[in-house]
Amino acid sequence: MKYLLILIFFFSFFSCNYFEKKKLNSETILIEELKTFEWNELDFYPSFETCDSSIDFQETKFCFEQTLMMHLSNYFLAKELVVTRTVSDTILIDFLVTKKGYIRISKIKSQKLTQDQIPSLDSIIVNSLASLPKLYPAIKRSQQVQSAFQIPLILAVK
Length: 158
Known about the structure:
By secondary structure, this protein is an alpha+beta fold.
């Protein structure tokens, strides 16, 4: 009987650890959550009013890219560019879509010949992007976020 009481006392004394709830620090939870967070992936691409009905990620991405490229192509086709030499260049346009849905151009990369033959190239690109239809920003975890993109624009003028 004496051993039984000692055994019960021993188990009851050390079993309290099983009933203790461990408190998690909010910083620990945040650090663990940030480890699983994919910073380079979006939940939803930026979208134009014409693309807004698309719910699928790939459809939204495709519609965004197509609308952007068609708008730039049509804008350049409407311009009558006059050059003295044949220009064939792939222009790289780096831009940001802000949280408010505005486009900010970061950098425009083109060849020296293209810049010499079309000195107003940068302003043409800026004006073409300024005349885009209403743009909704990208979404990450139900929050509107700023996103960066690079698009190639193939320019061939004879």
